[in-house]
Specification:
Strand content of chain B: 25-35%
Number of strands of chain A: 20
Oligomer: heterodimer
Largest sheet of chain B: 7 strands, mixed
Order of helices and strands of chain A: EEHEEEEEEEEEEHEEEEEEEHE
Number of helices of chain A: 3
Keywords (chain B): ATP-binding, Hydrolase, Nucleotide-binding
Helix content of chain B: 10-25%
Largest interface: A-B, 39 and 43 residues
Structural class of chain A: mainly beta
InterPro entries (chain B): CT_C_D (IPR003833), Cyclophilin-like_dom_sf (IPR029000), PxpB (IPR010016)
Pfam family, one (chain B): CT_C_D
Structural class of chain B: alpha+beta
Protein name (chain B): Carboxyltransferase domain-containing protein
Radius of gyration of chain B: 19 Å
Order of helices and strands of chain B: EEHHEEHEHHEEEEEEEE
Number of helices of chain B: 5
Number of strands of chain B: 13
Strand order of the largest sheet of chain A: 12-19-16-17-14-13-20
Distance between the termini of chain A: 49 Å
Distance between the termini of chain B: 43 Å
Shape of chain A: elongated
Largest sheet of chain A: 7 strands, mixed, barrel
Helix content of chain A: under 10%
Strand order of the largest sheet of chain B: 5-13-6-7-10-9-12
Chain lengths: 285, 219
Amino acid sequence: MSGLRVRATGPLALVEDLGRRGLAGVGVGRSGAADRGALRLANRLLGNPEGAAAVEVLLGGLEVEALADLDVVVTGAPAPVLLDGRPVGSHARTRVAAGSRLTLGVPGTGLRSYLAVRGGLDVPPVLGSASHDVLAGLGRAPLAAGDLLEVGEPAGPLPATHAAPPPGDDGRDVVLRAVLGPHEDRVVDVAPLATGWWEVSERSNRVGARLQGEGLVATDDEQLPSEGTWRGAVQVPPGGEPVLFLADHPVTGGYPVVAVVVDADVDRAAQLRPGQRVRLRWVTA
Amino acid sequence: MRVRAYGDRAVLVELATTQEAVDWAAGLETLLGSAAGAGGAEQLEQVVPAARSVLVVARDGVPVVEVRRLLDRVEPRPAAASDEGDVLEVPTVYDGEDLADVASLTGLTEEQVVAAHTGQTWRVAFAGFAPGFGYLLGEDDRLHVPRRDEPRTRVPEGSVGLAGAYSGVYPTASPGGWQLLGRTDLVLWDVDRDPPALLRPGVRVRFVDVGGAAGGGGA
């Protein structure tokens, strides 16, 4: 059988693809890889459809054993990759022989690495996607040691390109482009989001990155009616600590959205580590 | 109607009432399904109706200005007459912890609260909060109550509640701030069922009082 046996998982390892479409009407969000670009890149380097399912690995620690000869790629946060203890590096296609073990160390920068395999992970979809949504509780449970991950059939030829440059973020302060949100007038002053630095909180997850800083003050405490939300929205709950919504954000929310990070920068937001500093830079939509 | 920027992939269409939002979302759906809206469906990633707005998200690579152009052509479609189609019956035990509070907030007796809740047809206006959670809009406003000041950390699955203009049923156990009237055994959300959600936008609902004895007596 073609597949991978999970030997260790690190803090959290989840199966993700590009998520579920068009189910907001029943309260189900998109979910999918937190860093969509990294998932797409890994799949392209393997000749997979770009949304094929892969493992999203939080801060390394994943170890898998190949049950057949397989081609794999690790992208996203640049983690040290070891094949039977020998470094092979990330962002490059690697041939793994049956019985060999592949291990992801803790990345020097970033948060989430992606282990993709040629043919994609063959995980039964739930509502059209293999993704685990931590908020909705949908999709395959977080991986555990001993799990078997089956691998699908290759969809096309291997591409000529076998490697790509790793992401350029150096782990220091990050500036994200954003558009003023529909409720920017619901805080006394939205400017500090772009003029001050905000520290990413430990209480961040796939739902959102919580930002600690000077705090934003609501203009009044009248409840807003519930409205649709989307990845990249910066919502300000009553405590004043903004939440930047990521892959598993709620479908609707009732707190003011004062900014929305542009789509191209949301993947970088999903790689922000707790303790790292971030601010916004205003652009027009 | 007012269209606000929502990042570079979406626009938020604000409307005056939930009914207007429902009608506008229905109009968008009609447009997408018609020749005049040809190609529009491929431009959209997601349409999220909510209390007084509809969030419209463009697909990857579709400029949001294209979406704005499409929205200009939407003609709101008033919801169908309330006497058409089937009505989903929700058998409910009215022994909720907030029944007495709802009675005092509304100036009704507990019996009158139950009578008002079972005596009107509700309609799912939109979904959100959790998979399978529908916001139900009723026909009269006697049961409009605020959310609880202190949300509960755990509301059991099947709890029937009220908040603002809405009624709703918790499809799974979760934290929540709605005023609880009672509970139902009806399974509202099951991913192995097609469709998984019983409460989908447009579905009409009647709550049926099946007596309080099962829970050991009312409020």
